[in-house]
Amino acid sequence: MKNKKVLIVDDNALNRRVFENVIGHNYFFDSASDGVEAIELLKRNNYDIVLMDIQMPKLDGISCLKIIREEDITNIPVIAISAYSNQGDRDYFLSTGFDDFIAKPVKPKDLLETIHFHLQPDMSSSLADDNNSEEYSELNEAVIRQLLKYHSIENIKSVYIDFLEEAKNLTEEIKILADLKKFDEIGEKLHILKGNSGTLGVLAIYRATAGFEKKIKQSNLADIEADMACLESGLRTYQRIIENDKIFSKYE
What we know:
Largest sheet: 5 strands, parallel
Distance between the termini: 28 Å
Strand content: 5-15%
């Protein structure tokens, strides 16, 4: 299957890196950070499938797909990837022309199975199943084991370390925005944190951001100090896990 090539389109660098680690074992790939860059790559190169994030700067996923189809740039499958996950959202994305939909947080197995389904329909059931029901209170090790199927523990560890730095920076930015009462911008930061923590199985942060983001969207600011404290606590917990290193050493 290394003769197939995937275009990954996501404005978040950590998301792109996780997707690259997952699919790199089976496919060639290129990555784009927004819809404008994706269109340029599609015009210059041949791909077999596109993984398209929805919320992006410059040109969002839906607008990008519209240009791709209207200008007849390519007719390959384009898969929507978004944190919106109910059936209504899925139906909407399919109605706009996407060939399929993957909800964030993205599970490696779901990502590969979707790609296989559209590129090699007869092989979609051949992916090894993992015991993904094993879930720890603060970090879901099933995600690490899934990633280990496609990349080395050193590479995976660096992804988790990078996410720790990203989480620190975003949490600090959220604190500043809260003081400035820029709540819309807080929602954007929380959206990134929730998506990346969910993809990596960092439950300590995912739980804190999921509820916090929902309240921000509903303009429920009564408990913002408590929500902020919960997020900072989750970050400290995750930092202890990473600095302890036992979570990774068992796989070396």
